[in-house]
Design brief:
- GO terms for molecular function: RNA binding.
- One of its GO terms (biological process) is RNA modification.
- Helices cover 75% and strands 0% of the residues.
- The protein is mainly alpha-helical.
């Protein structure tokens, strides 16, 4: 039951269930810690849970790291990471994401290079970091180096072109995408609207079958 509340991110119900448990083990403690880390606004609760645990494993350490990261505290996220006796790919990705989200691109690059192994999440985290800051050259290099591409990667590269002002490149990439979703359409729509081709933006908007709040906002902002 506790795991079900945790997956549903029902903090009050999970906390009540946890308090009523006659016995708690590493799994139940870690479920609560991971829940507080994911939901946000519960950094102190996450720290209290971690400090109350009789033992820690890589999952609990990574959950605490994530809690600091989501709270915007990169310094303590890094401190936790350095204290970890054992790190797995999830731990490395969590530290990479902490640097990437906070805009510490150089530290994110260094972390990426030091990773003993990388998965798709690692590559996409770095790609998105470049993308949202319009660092097109680095984003393109990362995109081209990825061992496998998914829709998130395509959308991130499209966003990089849009933020960088490369409308022609964005159109070319958009046309070549093997699949698209509402995020793809909204990114392309934003590029058309922000870079001045309002007629093309209107045509794209009219053709969209799955208009989202983001797509409506793009049109209202563009016009």
């Amino acid at each position: 039951m506790l795991s079900a509340f945790g997956r549903a991110e029902l903090v009050r119900e999970a906390s009540s269930c946890f308090q009523k448990m006659p016995e708690r083990n590493l799994v139940s403690w870690t479920v609560m810690l991971a829940l507080f880390a994911r939901v946000g606004r519960h950094l102190e609760d996450a720290k209290n849970i971690f400090d109350s645990m009789e033992e820690h494993d890589v999952v609990s350490w990574t959950a605490l790291l994530t809690a600091y990261s989501r709270h915007g505290d990169v310094f303590y996220a890094c401190k936790v990471f350095n204290l970890m006796a054992f790190k797995n790919i999830v731990s490395w990705n969590a530290m990479l994401a902490a640097f990437a989200v906070s805009g510490h691109i150089q530290e994110a690059e260094e972390t990426f290079k030091k990773m003993p192994e990388r998965d798709l999440v690692s590559w996409i985290t770095l790609l998105v970091a470049y993308s949202i800051r319009g660092r097109v050259d680095e984003a393109r290099k990362t995109f081209n180096s990825m061992p496998r591409l998914n829709l998130v990667a395509w959308n991130a590269m499209l966003t990089a072109y849009a933020h960088g002002g490369f409308l022609g490149k964005a159109r070319e990439l958009y046309r070549s995408m093997p699949e698209k979703n509402p995020v793809s359409h909204s990114a392309m729509l934003a590029a058309e609207a922000q870079l001045g081709d309002l007629r093309q933006a209107q045509n794209l908007f009219d053709a969209m079958r799955d208009r989202t709040l983001a797509s409506w906002t793009c049109m209202l902002t563009g016009f």
